[in-house]
Amino acid sequence: MLCLCSIYACSEKRPAVVERPVFDVRNSGTLEIDKIEMSDSSTIFYIDAFFHPNQWIRISGETYIKESGSAEKLLITKSEGINLDEEFYMPASGETSFRLFFPPLPPGIVKVDFIESDCPDCFKTWGIRLLSGDKIKIDPIPSGFLTGKASKPLPPPSFPYGTATLSGKYLGYIEGYFMDGDKVTVSLSEILNSGNSSQLEFPIAADGSFSGEIPLDRPQLVSVAGNQIFMSSGESHELYIDLKKRNRTDGRYRTDKEPGDSLYIYTRSSGNHLSTRDVETLKNAGKLYDYETLFPKIADMNCNEFKEYLLGEAWTKLEELKQAGYSDNVCALLEQNIKTDAIGLLLNTTRLLNGAYSYKNKKARDDANQLKNPDIEYYSFLKEMVNDKLAYCQQYPALLSLLRDNVAFSRPEGGTVSEKFAYFKEKISPLLGTDEGLLFDAVHAQLFAAQLQKPALFTDADKELIRKTFAAQPAITDALIAANDRTQAIIASAKESKSSVIRETPKVSEDKVFNAILAGYKGKVVLVDFWATWCGPCIRAHKLLKQLKTEWEGKEDIVYLYLTGETSPITDWYKMIPDIHGEHYRVSDKQFNYWYKTFDIQGVPTYFVYNREGKQTFRSTGFPGVDKVKEEIEKNL
To answer: Hey, what domains does the chain have and what are their CATH numbers?
Structure first.
């Protein structure tokens, strides 16, 4: 008894106020805890919020705190400075402050979790320390990550189709950490996919570990959980991410930061092309440009002035790269990224300059002042910029698409794949100083793959032509025919779906298409969703609305109407729609752009609700939340 009393007497007493408490991990940097006041009557969290100006945040009325490791919840009692369950639009500063009140904490509790309800995308902070000077214990890193240096040069650029393996772990992981689901997202690009990123998702186990296989059509930089990892077929890769160190690094109010916290990513691979420090460098390396600073500089330039300016910027960046002290492999990869950025911008010269003019002057150029596309000699810079190592970049397939579709190299009257490729080769070869190499093989393959987006599946004659064309590159032949077979299977599966219906676009003029579509649902309440396959917020909203659709299953007087354009690759569209229950239309870009202009659509997703008489009763750019959608539909039922 005496011993226990001595221990209790010497233990630190919980203070009445803890300033900017340290914590283990959180799932968002939007909310910063400035201080916590604790008394016999309440527990008060003083919150500072940082978010995009004029965008909204919301605090749930089901927010609670609890002792870490306990299941007992202390539900929020009130708020000041923000109304619970209501959208709060951030001021122009992007900052605001409010207070959240909870019941008093029982004595002895020194570590709590803040949970803004149990929804997957709500704000959560775990392991908040209530004792002054409390330290966060960092998990040990497996040996071999901190000392190793990259020792092998990058493999030669080529198209050896195959797979790489990925494994790793989130240290300090807590289930529910990720707002969009407990999974690792891997993003890579494929030549045949014309630059649209392929997304893979690997589930995260309870201990934070994950693993999977990565299909590759060439050695390239692959984005794994936001980190650039260089992967080549046949290699194995490990990635460890220390969430506690990352949260210390990112926290605005953290007073317990330690030297080395910024190095919270650890990697190694059998290829040994990049060290842990190299991966950190690639993650933090800046781009050649950002639109906010670029647009004001180029708004009044003509095409040649823009070309001179941008090439000057690119060569300056490349010269700085040589002096930066990076490893040879990092320098090689960053060099190709800079060149890819520069080529992509210069292939879009007129669009960028017209857009910059509109951005600066708040109005579009009139027709008389619209800049015209430059002549083919304008692209003489390609000889210095283009090389096979560009294939290392994730943007490489998109760059190829820009080249083949550019008016300077694209056959104006269309034609067969062979005719289009012959025209492309004739026009671009003098500028490159060669008519062979990876670029030509890749563009030729893309032209064949583009048929599948119409979709026009390969005939036997097409397949024979592909075999002859790529006799020296059988891997490309196999990939094209496999893509054809996948497309065929995806279309068949989509058409067999009983809950998602693919509709033909009415054959009327563009100004009548929308009304013609809507007329088919007269007498019903219609939720219209303008979306795209590449739009992350659209896809997250689809998942959130699943529960509402289940709740209303069997209600034939509600229609979910999904509209997208040709920017949504048709195979991706067919692949996604079986899981998006409703009526689906994929219209032409001309028709979709007409809607954008006529309906003043600011972006996707955008939602309209129509009543039984066909009158619009609600609209929202951005997903307004499940509760709001439900409310607006129920008004019309």
So the answer is: 9-129 (2.60.40), 162-284 (2.60.40), 291-493 (no CATH), 500-634 (3.40.30.10)
